[in-house]
């Protein structure tokens, strides 16, 4: 469950796997985050879990990036705040979505961001996508249809639709990041810190509204050891560790290579959901999952060309 910006690239080292392996670990961690979030979150604790998850790591990010935060201009603060508001929507949709669908479906459906983003960019720039890319997009959409019909042809679940909206929200976030000129020159750590801080503020305000679910401290008091382990995994590994590995890796290789490795996230989500979560796709669902992965891989190659 990710949506963080990457800084500029520098040349790759000779031993690429010294850099690739940690990034692959991040992809695996993100893939397993859907099952972890599903394990500790209910309909009434979504906002509480989000406040706790990001509230735990935010002080560490503030301390690490305090110099860069002081150097941000007013326009950069505003731009990062807007991106943070969009980011809060992404995490709300993803977290509510994973409560109502399987971790496997969540990880595979969210991978459609890799198809939606180039299509949206083509619409904004009025540059028609290639036939190969359109074919890849069609294959991915067909895959999602089959994926959500693993138990027979029925209406997609609420969770499936929320994950689809989350994929669209991720696309909006990427486009906004490229269109808001003020943030393009901002330090990546500072930008991410302001975004996460803005998102936590949104979660906290919503959590304070009566009827929106348990308060963060109430949810925390009800957590057992396993719940705390899941929350710390989401905070320390899926957020803090993942962000710093991205920053470290992209300075030693290329953003394209990092993006390619992180693109294996849905594979890990399916693997973890099936092997650890005991989820079952069925024949149609399995075929749909394969088509989603094939379509996104084909689309990535078509975009690269």
UniProtKB/TrEMBL annotation:
The keyword Cell membrane applies. The keyword Membrane applies. Its main location: membrane. The chain crosses the membrane at residues 46-65, 77-96, 102-120, 132-155, 228-246, 282-299. Residues 23-148, 158-297 form the EamA domain. Belongs to the EamA transporter family. GO terms for cellular component: plasma membrane. Keywords: Cell membrane, Membrane, Transmembrane, Transmembrane helix. InterPro entries: Diverse_Substrate_Transporter, EamA_dom, EmrE-like. This is DMT family transporter. It is a multi-pass membrane protein. The lineage of its organism: Bacteria, Bacillati, Actinomycetota, Actinomycetes, Kitasatosporales. It comes from the Bacteria. It comes from Streptomyces beijiangensis. It is found in: Cell membrane. Pfam families: EamA.
């Amino acid at each position: 469950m990710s949506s963080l910006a990457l800084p500029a690239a520098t040349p790759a080292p000779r031993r690429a796997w010294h850099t690739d392996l940690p990034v692959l670990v991040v992809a695996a961690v993100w893939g397993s985050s859907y099952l972890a979030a599903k394990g500790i979150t209910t309909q009434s604790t979504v906002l509480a879990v989000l406040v706790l998850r990001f509230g735990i790591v935010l002080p560490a990010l503030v301390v690490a990036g305090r110099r860069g935060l002081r150097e941000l201009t007013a326009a950069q603060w505003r731009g990062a705040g807007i991106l943070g508001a969009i980011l809060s929507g992404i995490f709300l949709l993803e977290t509510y979505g994973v409560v109502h669908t399987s971790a496997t479906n969540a990880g595979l459906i969210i991978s459609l961001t890799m198809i939606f983003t180039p299509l949206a960019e083509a619409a904004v720039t009025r540059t028609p996508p290639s036939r190969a890319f359109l074919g890849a997009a069609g294959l991915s959409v067909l895959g999602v249809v089959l994926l959500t019909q693993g138990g027979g042809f029925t209406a997609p679940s609420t969770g499936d639709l929320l994950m689809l909206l989350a994929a669209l929200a991720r696309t909006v976030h990427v486009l906004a990041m490229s269109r808001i000129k003020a943030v393009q020159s901002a330090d990546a750590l500072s930008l991410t810190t302001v975004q996460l801080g803005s998102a936590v503020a949104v979660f906290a305000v919503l959590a304070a509204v009566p009827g929106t679910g348990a308060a963060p401290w109430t949810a925390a008091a009800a957590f057992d050891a396993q719940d705390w382990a899941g929350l710390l995994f989401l905070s320390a590994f899926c957020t803090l560790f993942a962000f710093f590995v991205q920053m470290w890796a992209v300075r030693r290789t290329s953003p394209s290579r990092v993006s390619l490795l992180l693109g294996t996230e849905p594979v890990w989500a399916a693997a973890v959901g099936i092997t650890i979560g005991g989820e079952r796709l069925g024949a149609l669902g399995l075929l749909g999952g394969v088509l989603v992965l094939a379509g996104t891989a084909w689309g990535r190659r078509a975009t690269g060309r």
